């Protein structure tokens, strides 16, 4: 197996444990040390939980999950939606945990979009207006950031933080448009945002396009995905999706032809946070979940049996993976779903109308169980992938590598 | 998955960033450095742009910007944008084998770093020089900086194959918002560059010498302290003719430099260049168009012959 670049992607609905896998990749000894973790989709709504062997816990949202390992850098690529406000409090927490230099190890690409309090206000107003038909949004404004940028080329970007006048222009236009649509939205004055965002620009290193090429040449890089393939903006079950590409695609584009190992991550059982299809859901599976609780914007945390149908679909939709990592290997046995009543395989479209009718079908589908998943090997066999890593607990010392990864 | 773990309070974030003193693009500057990085020190230095196996048609391009306080946030913004310059020049064939040098200009009469000059590089190593540039943020408050020292260095301390082998002039872009001192002072040259001069050199004379081998442009960015002062435009027009450009969107700095080279190299006309910008999805077109309209084909100064400058230059104040 490779000692080069690795892309870590969750094949399901998120929450599989990408953070803990990335932490392990960066903390390993006896291999070429990882130079940096690169974020290549989503934004500050990511919540990748990492626990150190000495018991410190951090939920990584924008910093790479390798940050506990000294010297490992984080690079937020142009595909990331950067939230400077959440970044500051995350850095404060890392400092409190004894990681004082997280901001100094951070680089941010100037072209990345900014997520602001104005996006957040619009996101929440929109979700409230949907009432019962909620999509399970996180309320962080990430989707709104993507939506707004599609409609408005003057959407604020990271590089704007270097120029107060440009930043002021972009934020004023954004705030005005949000208030036009949602007159009651609570939004801070532009000047208060300018102060915080210019502070961000002076505290972090904002870089241009060529930086990543150099980084890739300097040593192994881990690409840390956010959310999961089954939430992908195109291949997820529309409209219960995220506004970002959750497959390997963005990472491969950033690699620009450089070689990388595509690692899929799944739990031994299935989970879903918030609304949307979940064929193998089983409310009786009451496994402990220390870090994921019901969320005011996203709804309940749901559990289900191992869904090989949905995961095989995720692999086809994302062009396949090279190997599998299975987390929560210590969980009790679950059923193995190898077909639904109405589907042996799920068709891959790249068309939202087709996706929507698939979603409608899946909301009432029933699973067909043909066996058990009692070990990570069962999960890997069901997906036809080599198993390279199993995780029995939250710390990197709880991982077992099954081959040279 | 999302839960918005971290507080997004705008006031806490502002306070947190005020406390944090992270590294920045200007790592050398922000590490608390107080002197010119040795790699950029002009003392007894010489900078060469030479042909090589993989770049047989080298073309020297130098970008020197003012890093004193009146430029406000401009130097930091330039630092994030300029790394894209090389790719932009190469993608559209504006220049076959560009070699880029970055440098910075301060005030010899009161700054720690009156002149910083990197190396001509054909790949992204020039970004490292950008990172080593010490940001002054001081300046003399006189609306005058030591551009004449930079001009002197470029005139007498550079050698380029594009000139020596092909009689093609290189491109020198100065970016700033101030006047130069009226003379290259021998004492400063001795202290900062190391040469023994018999006498001071009037700035018009050093410009004449410089423009034999270099096409020289002065770019005035909007949003700087003195950018709107008519005195500034008059001064540089007097020295460089129409090669004085106004840039109202800093985001467009690379495009402006790249298209200026493309126009002067006869690789394109302005219209084609703007089409290229649109193709790559750049939104800089309007700003570049305004900046470069005086240089459209047929109007580009080929000789850069400075106007005859009498003795009516503004005088810098020499402080003790």
From TrEMBL, chain A:
Q: Which UniProt keywords apply?
A: Cytoplasm, GTP-binding, Ligase, Magnesium, Metal-binding, Nucleotide-binding, Purine biosynthesis
Q: How is the cofactor bound?
A: Binds 1 Mg(2+) ion per subunit.
Q: Chief localization class? A: cytoplasm
* Catalytic activity annotation: IMP + L-aspartate + GTP = N(6)-(1,2-dicarboxyethyl)-AMP + GDP + phosphate + 2 H(+)
Can you tell me which residues bind GTP? 328-330
Residues binding Mg(2+) are 15
Q: What organism does this protein naturally occur in?
A: Actinocorallia herbida
Q: Which GO terms describe its cellular component?
A: cytoplasm
**Stated name of the protein:** Adenylosuccinate synthetase
| EC number, as in UniProt | 6.3.4.4
Enzyme active site: 15 (proton acceptor), 48 (proton donor)
Top-level taxon of the source organism:
Bacteria
Q: Which family does it belong to?
A: Belongs to the adenylosuccinate synthetase family.
Describe the subunit structure.
Answer: Homodimer.
One Pfam family of this chain:
Adenylsucc_synt
The entry's function note states: Plays an important role in the de novo pathway of purine nucleotide biosynthesis. Catalyzes the first committed step in the biosynthesis of AMP from IMP.
Q: What class of enzyme is it?
A: ligase
Positions with a binding annotation for IMP: 227, 242
SMART domains per record: Adenylsucc_synt (SM00788)
Tell me what gene encodes this: purA
One BP annotation, GO: IMP metabolic process
Q: Where is it located?
A: Cytoplasm
Molecular function (GO) terms for this protein are: adenylosuccinate synthase activity; GTP binding; magnesium ion binding
Q: Which cofactor does it need?
A: Mg(2+)
Q: In which pathway does it act?
A: Purine metabolism; AMP biosynthesis via de novo pathway; AMP from IMP: step 1/2
UniProtKB/TrEMBL annotation, chain B:
| Source species, domain of life | Bacteria
The entry's protein name is VWFA domain-containing protein
Provide the species name: Actinocorallia herbida
């Amino acid at each position: 197996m490779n000692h080069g670049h690795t892309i870590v992607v969750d094949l399901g609905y998120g929450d599989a444990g990408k953070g803990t896998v990335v932490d392990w990749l960066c903390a390993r000894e006896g291999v070429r040390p990882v130079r940096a973790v690169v974020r290549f989709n989503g934004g500050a709504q990511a919540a990748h939980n990492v626990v150190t062997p000495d018991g410190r816990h951090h939920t990584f949202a924008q910093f790479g999950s390798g940050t506990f390992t000294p010297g490992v850098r984080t690079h937020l690529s142009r595909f990331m939606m950067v939230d400077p406000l959440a970044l500051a409090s995350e850095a404060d927490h890392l400092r409190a945990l004894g990681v004082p230099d997280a901001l100094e190890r951070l680089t941010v690409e100037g072209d990345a979009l900014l997520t602001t309090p104005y996006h957040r206000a619009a996101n929440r107003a929109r979700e409230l207006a949907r009432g019962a038909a909620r999509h399970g949004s996180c309320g962080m404004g990430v989707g709104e950031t993507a939506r707004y940028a599609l409609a408005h080329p003057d959407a604020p970007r990271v590089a704007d933080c270097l120029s107060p006048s440009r930043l002021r222009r972009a934020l004023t236009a954004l705030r005005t448009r949000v208030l036009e649509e949602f007159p009651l939205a609570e939004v801070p004055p532009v000047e208060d945002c300018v102060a915080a965002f210019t502070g961000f620009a002076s505290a972090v290193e904002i870089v241009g396009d060529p930086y990543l090429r150099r980084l890739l040449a300097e040593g192994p890089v881990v690409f840390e995905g956010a959310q999961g393939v089954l939430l992908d903006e195109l291949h997820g079950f529309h409209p219960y999706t995220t506004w970002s590409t959750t497959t390997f695609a963005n990472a491969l584009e950033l690699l620009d032809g450089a070689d990388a190992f595509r690692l899929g991550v799944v739990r031994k059982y299935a989970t879903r946070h918030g609304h949307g299809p979940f064929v193998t859901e089983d409310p009786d599976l009451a496994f402990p979940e220390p870090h994921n609780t019901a969320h005011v914007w996203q709804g309940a945390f749901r559990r289900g049996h191992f869904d090989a149908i949905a995961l095989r679909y995720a692999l086809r939709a994302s062009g396949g993976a090279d190997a599998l990592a299975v987390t929560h290997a210590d969980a009790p046995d679950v059923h193995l779903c190898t077909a639904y009543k109405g589907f042996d395989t799920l068709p891959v479209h790249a068309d939202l109308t087709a996706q929507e009718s698939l979603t409608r079908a899946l909301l009432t589908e029933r699973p067909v169980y043909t066996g058990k998943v009692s070990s990570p090997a069962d999960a890997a066999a069901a997906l036809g992938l080599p198993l390279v890593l199993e995780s029995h607990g939250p710390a990197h010392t709880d991982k077992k590598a099954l081959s040279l990864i | 998955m999302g839960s918005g773990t971290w507080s997004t309070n705008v006031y806490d974030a502002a306070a947190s960033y005020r406390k944090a003193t992270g590294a920045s693009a200007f790592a050398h500057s922000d590490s608390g450095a107080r002197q010119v990085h040795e790699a950029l020190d002009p003392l007894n230095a010489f900078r060469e742009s030479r042909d090589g196996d993989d770049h047989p048609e080298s073309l020297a391009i130098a970008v020197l910007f003012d890093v004193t306080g009146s430029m406000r946030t401009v130097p930091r913004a330039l630092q994030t944008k300029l790394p894209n310059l090389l790719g932009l020049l190469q993608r559209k064939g504006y220049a076959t084998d560009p070699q880029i040098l970055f440098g910075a200009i301060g005030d010899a009469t009161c700054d720690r770093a009156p002149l910083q000059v990197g190396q001509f590089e054909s790949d992204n190593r020039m970004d490292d020089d950008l990172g080593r540039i010490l940001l002054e943020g001081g300046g003399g408050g006189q609306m005058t900086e030591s551009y004449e020292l930079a001009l002197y260095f470029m005139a007498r301390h550079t050698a380029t194959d594009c000139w020596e082998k092909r009689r093609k002039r290189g491109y020198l872009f100065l970016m700033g918002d101030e006047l130069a001192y009226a003379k290259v002072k021998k004492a400063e040259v001795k202290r900062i560059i190391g040469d023994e001069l018999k006498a001071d050199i009037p700035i018009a004379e050093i410009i004449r010498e410089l423009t034999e081998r270099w096409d020289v442009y002065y770019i005035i960015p909007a949003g700087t302290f003195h950018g709107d002062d008519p005195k500034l435009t008059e001064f540089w027009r007097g020295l460089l003719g129409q090669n004085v450009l106004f840039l109202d969107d800093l985001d467009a700095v690379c495009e402006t430099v790249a298209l200026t080279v493309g126009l002067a190299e006869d690789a394109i006309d302005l219209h084609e260049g703007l089409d290229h910008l649109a193709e790559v999805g750049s939104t800089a077109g309007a700003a570049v168009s305004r900046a470069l309209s005086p240089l459209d084909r047929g109007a580009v100064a080929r000789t850069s012959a400075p106007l005859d400058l009498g003795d009516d230059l503004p005088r810098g104040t020499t402080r003790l």
